[in-house]
Input
Amino acid sequence: MILDAGDVLLRPYEPRDRDALVAILGEPSLMRLVLEERPLAKAEAEAFIDRDFRVSGRLGYRTVALKSSDEAIGFSGFRACHYLNEDDVEFGWVLARKHHGRGYATALGEALIRQALESWRLPRVLAACSPLNHASERILRDKLQMRFERQVEPRAGFSRRVYSAARGWQ
Output
């Protein structure tokens, strides 16, 4: 599956993406707000890529690449989610800091919501972010017009603000 999201594409992972993705996963200022809220050491990042970039049906991560150069600038995709005590699908993205503020996350979010609700015909799709990730929350709430559901703490000290989009979104 390739998703067109404006100036970026969400495409299958290719081995040439590995160095860029390992660097992103190891970036402390970026990773403190996403995934496990800490940078991953090189071996951890490589294991994450080997495990989570194996797309299984709808779930898994793909590379976010610039259309103009096919340069890997991050990753995005879907994963199973139980934050609201139901079998849901959650989407998310992680983009290299130098590519923030260019509208890529909003374009990805729109494409991912459309994929989940229109193509897959899911009744809803979720997105969640750290309460400290104000930029992502602003995109979910204001730009993607997702509905705030609740704040959850799936494990001690790990909080997420959960948003949803349902059929009829926008």
